[in-house]
Amino acid sequence: MNYELLCNKVISIVRLTGNFIRKEAMQFDLNKIEYKGLNDMVSYVDKTAEQKLVQNLEKLIPDAGFLTEEKTINREGKTYKWIIDPLDGTTNFIHGIPTYAISVALYEDGIPVVGVVYELNRAEMFYAYKGGKAYLNKKGIKVSDNPDLKSSLLATGFPYYEFDKQAQYVQLLTEMMQKSHGVRRIGAAAVDLVYVACGRFDAFFEYNLQQWDFAAGCYIIQQAGGEIFDFSGGSAYFDKREIVATNGKLSNEMLTAIKKYF
């Protein structure tokens, strides 16, 4: 498998789908919103974008499995699986807030080999592939060198359902606000993660994520020299759906703080 060539083909597919989303953003009708659950919105844009992605990705590896947010197709594959979020940051998109992205990852025997995140508003294509590094618009990227929390800018997400851990989260957030340059909440986990990968953020933490939110972003961070953990410091983040992503230098401080509350 030529992973670089495959990644370039994925980038072309993602860019094409991004053109559709960008066009729809200019004429989006709020009356076309649907609700999948509490505060969990979706539109025809998400669904159509996912259909376009699946249709074209199937041509690259016909027998690959799929895990998709809008359930256009969900099936197991023997070796390969695509994990897709056609529009991460749907709430931002619906309200006209300019931060949202397409996220596509390819796993081979359970291991990530390609990750692509396309932030549409700044036309920033983040990607990584097996045997390569991490890139932004064809330029290599790496995580920051900030050595400690007090010199760092952090990112997180707020829970919009399953509020049973909200009190713990607020305590953690309070500590992080006091120990760092600040905490940002952009509203698109895929974007938060790739911003860690290119050094804009120094670390990111969130729980209640879905696998399609972070599959590509986590891989790009790892290829950019960063580290990914679950809240216990282990490697089960994919199953637990909780993420601590750092530049590698903040890992101990971040985990020490998180373990106080989670």
Automatic annotation (TrEMBL):
Q: What is its EC number?
A: 3.1.3.25
GO MF annotation, one: metal ion binding
Q: Which SUPFAM superfamilies match?
A: Carbohydrate phosphatase (SSF56655)
Residues binding Mg(2+): 69, 85, 87-88, 213
Q: Record's InterPro entries?
A: IMPase, Inositol_monoP_metal-BS, Inositol_monophosphatase-like, Inositol_monophosphatase_SuhB
Gene3D superfamilies in UniProt? 3.40.190.80, Fructose-1,6-Bisphosphatase, subunit A, domain 1
Sorted alphabetically, which keywords does the UniProt record give?
Hydrolase, Magnesium, Metal-binding
Which chemical reaction does it catalyze?
a myo-inositol phosphate + H2O = myo-inositol + phosphate
Query: A biological process (GO) annotation for this entry?
Result: signal transduction
Decide whether keyword Magnesium is in the record.
yes
Is Nucleus set as a keyword in this record?
A: no
Q: Which CDD domains match?
A: IMPase (cd01639)
**UniProt cofactor(s):** Mg(2+)
> Which family is this sequence assigned to?
Belongs to the inositol monophosphatase superfamily.
PANTHER family in UniProt: INOSITOL MONOPHOSPHATASE (PTHR20854), INOSITOL-1-MONOPHOSPHATASE-RELATED (PTHR20854:SF4)
The entry's protein name is Inositol-1-monophosphatase
State the organism named in the record: Pedobacter rhizosphaerae
